[in-house]
Design a protein that fits this description.
The chain is an alpha+beta fold. The chain folds into two domains: 6-67, no CATH class; 84-281. Helices cover 21% and strands 31% of the residues. It contains eight helices and 17 strands. The chain has helices spanning 6-13, 16-27, 32-45, 63-67, 114-118, 122-126, 169-174, 178-181, and strands at 84-86, 91-98, 103-107, 110-113, 132-138, 145-147, 152-160, 184-191, 194-201, 208-211, 225-228, 235-236, 241-246, 249-255, 260-262, 271-272, 277-281. A hairpin with a 2-residue loop joins strand 3 (103-107) and strand 4. InterPro entries: PS_Dcarbxylase, PSD-B, PSD_type1_pro.
Length: 284
């Protein structure tokens, strides 16, 4: 399908990484006049619910500090993690379904390879054949910390450099293999739900991906970085924070077959909040 809209064509020609690095340097500035203007204008333009934030609008050290703001205690109650898989973030469902023939559905007429997305090799990707996936898009106004969908121990991660296309629905419908070509961090966890993956996908203007554990990768790098943690990997409870985005993006969850049944009420475009039940655990 040809890309015909000006928005999609513009993403092809702009220097994505240079633009994101520039945005990152401005967002990290602690100069009062810069951060104050950015925060107030952004909050107004995107109708950010500041009543949920644990700190007042003048208490943030930088725009990044505001963007990755923590929420007041109790703002995101967790569903019963003994029975359900939890939403890893605030946002909207982009797609969900079954992984078939090594492919994950992106949009009408478009899909991508599980192995390419994860970067862990064909053997690991094969474990998800016939399993389930869900893609959650975080809009600019959303809370941008990423949490655990289930309890698990970190086994490995792969930082994969790539493009920085926008990840909204228009771009998903117009760019082939979008989530498997953008910069991303694919994390593997092992728990009672078997092996599961949480993939943090970067996007246009995203200035960084961070994790709650020490890591060796840096954003906008040119080469993949794989880290194997094994028995030393951090154990995280369902609902615990695992990482955050410095500006925008998407989280994808992948589970092995026979582990999760997504809630029948969920469909593309459905809003979700961190901690909400996304589906039933089948082997809990």
């Amino acid at each position: 399908m040809a890309m015909t809209t000006p928005f999609l064509l513009l993403q092809r020609i702009v220097p994505q990484h240079a633009l994101s690095r520039l945005a990152g340097s401005v967002a990290a500035s602690e100069r009062r006049w810069i951060k104050a203007q950015l925060i107030r204008r952004f909050a107004a333009a995107y109708e950010v619910d500041l009543a949920e934030a644990a700190r007042g609008i003048d208490e943030f050290e930088s725009f990044n500090d505001f963007f990755t703001r923590e929420l007041k205690s109790g703002t995101r109650p967790l569903a019963d993690a003994e029975r359900f898989i939890l939403s890893p973030a605030d946002g909207a469902v982009s797609q969900l379904g079954t992984i078939s023939k090594g492919r994950i559905f992106q949009a009408k007429g478009r899909d991508f390879s599980t192995a390419e997305l994860l970067g862990h090799g064909d053997e690991s990707a094969q474990r998800f054949e016939g399993g389930t996936f869900i893609t959650v898009y975080l809009s600019p106004r959303d809370y941008h910390r990423v949490h655990m969908p289930a309890t698990g121990r970190l086994q490995s991660s792969v930082y994969i450099p790539g493009d920085l296309f926008s990840v909204n629905q228009q771009t998903a419908e117009g760019i082939d293999r979008l989530f498997a070509r953008n910069e991303r961090l694919a994390c593997m966890f092992e728990g009672e739900d078997g092996l599961f993956a949480s993939v943090m996908v970067g996007a246009m203007i995203v200035a960084g991906i961070d994790t709650v554990w020490p890591h060796a990768f840096t954003g906008h790098a040119r080469a993949p970085v794989r880290e194997d943690f094994g028995a030393d990997g951090m154990a995280l409870e369902a609902g615990a924070e695992m990482g955050r985005f410095y500006l925008g993006s998407t989280v994808m969850l992948l589970f092995e077959p026979g582990r999760v049944e997504w809630d029948a009420s969920l469909s593309p475009g459905a809003p979700v909040r961190m901690g909400q039940a996304l589906g039933r655990r089948l082997k809990a």
